[in-house]
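As agreed, record passed on underneath.
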Amino acid sequence: MICAFSINLHKMKKILLSILFLSTIGSVISQNWVPLYSGSSILIDAEALKINKANLQLQNGLKIKTSDWNGYLKNLVLRFPSATGDSILDGLTRFYYEYDKVEKMIRFDADRNASDYLNKSSISFSGYIKDAKIYPFVKFNCTGADWVYANRIKLVCDDETFEYDSLKFYTYGTSDFVSEYVLIPFNESMQELIPKIIRSKETIIRFYGDPIYSDLYVTDKMKMDMKMFLKTIKAMQ
């Protein structure tokens, strides 16, 4: 009786493994990677689009809403050579973006759904794209349960220290968290700072109130997002 049960259990395991293998093969076969647009090296899954027309599934795991692509992104990238258009999307698709119909511009900010940014302090690019020109800012964002009343920041980037004083912070809050942030134009100073942060082993950003302060340890994802968005900025300048 026990032997018969063991044999049946063994057969059942083999059947389940076979089903799993076949389903995996089927999912691989069903993928059909095609260029997002003519000349593009960015690939989308044409088969997945047949099932879910709301999103364009990119090969790198990111998604573009079909409505965003057809509504304004395609018009933007087709103004440039395909290689330049790809560079624009490589960075922009890692961020939150939306089209402002009143101002006729694309606004971008940190990805609001990513765990590294959601209700947390962060450093990111923020700004807008208008008439095929980009206007980027570096956003230093301090988020927590209570106000810091920040007015200056200090960065320790490996062995280097950078300080920025007398800053104007914007504020907003909910019942769960409060945020204070400053937008610094992507000027020569920021163009030198951001690559150093990206290459650093550790960067700590301290938001000073007086005497309160709050520290941000820049994550690898923040570094990678900024690194990729530098491609977007370079492509549009």
